[in-house]
Every structure is written in C-alpha cells, then in structure tokens.
Design a protein that fits this description.
By secondary structure, chain A is mainly alpha-helical. Chain A is built from two helices and no strands. Chain B contains eight helices and no strands. Classes of the chains: A mainly alpha, B mainly alpha.
Amino acid sequence: MSSLVYLWWAFYLVWLIAVGWKLSRLSMQRGSLLSPGNKAQLQGDH
Amino acid sequence: MLVPEVLFLTSPYDTNMSGAATLYYIASHQAWWIIVQVLSLGFSIVAMVVFLALLMALKHLNKSYAAIGAVIALASQVLILSYWPITMGQLALSQRYLAATTQAERKALATAAESLIAQNSIVAHSIETLCALGVTVLSLVMLKGVFRKSVAYVGIATSLSLCLEKHLRPCSA
C-alpha cells in the first residue's frame, strides 16, 4: 500500500472526528440536531 | 478505525498471498481476522451516521450539494459494508479448509478463496475515490457556515491527498 494512502486516511479520520465532535455538541446543546433551536442556529449561520 | 489498521499493518498478513495461504493464515488467526473485520466495517456504520447528521446540519446552507455529498459519501460506506460477506466468506472457507481431509477438497476451497481475494482487492480504490468525492462536496458546503473553515479545508485536503496518491502511486508504492 502506498504511503500516501495513509495521508488520505489521516485527513479523513481528522475530518470525521472534527465533524462528529461538532455535530455531537450541536445535538447536546439543544437535545436534538433537529430541534427548533438548532434549526434556527443553523439557519442563522447561513 | 485506528485499532484495526494497526492490527492489520503489524501482522504478517499479505493481500497478495495465494488462496491456500490466505485460508491457512485466517484459520490460524481467527480472532484477529474477526476483530479487524468487525472494527473496520463497524466504523462504516458510525461514518454513515455522521454523514446523515451532516446532511441535516448543512441542508440549510445548500440543500442540493449537501444531499449530493451525503449520498455519495453514504454510497461509499455501503460499498465498504459489501466487504462483509466477502471477508466472512473467507473465514467460513478457512474453517472448512482446516477440516478438509483430502488434497482435492483443499484445492477446491483454495480456488474458491482466490475469487474472494480478487473481489476484496478490486473495489478498494474506487471506494476511496467515492468517499473522498463525497467528503469534498460536503466540505465545500461547510465553507458557508456551521463548521469552522479549518474543518472544511481538512475535508478538501482528503480529496487532494487522494488525487496526489493516484498520480504518484508508481513513485510512492
């Protein structure tokens, strides 16, 4: 296996952990990712 | 994800082994095989949950691109799960290989294993490409908000690193 494949896996893993962390924080803040408060916050970000 | 990768890389298992050698190796390292497969394939289920949640979080920014990215990324994870029957088939064959009493029986099982090994090696690169494409589309949507821009750039970097790998494969292998 090429060593650059490990680079791709490293980026993918870091990205997935960062995204999962943020999503779990969003869910915990409001009880659900789809709660009215979260929807408003997500729309507000836009 | 890291545990099965470390277990896989630190073992003498070689994906280019013959059918008979593969069956013998799996039969003598059954626990290792099951742990590696369950953890690596189970990771896909976690990733699928993340991609679905990401679609919910990003759909307010750009519904079409968020959906396209999530569907591509989910499709790649579904393809990864399609490894399950192949790897578990290899495990079942390895047990039969050990129990086989005649040379002809072992030869037939080794031939069957060769087809599973071939299936196991073909799809990997296309799945990585599909996954990178999905992550890139989702990351481009992420640049508009909700997540930090640095997270989005890491997502885009995954795709770039894979492109680099595809172009430099003969040099870096």
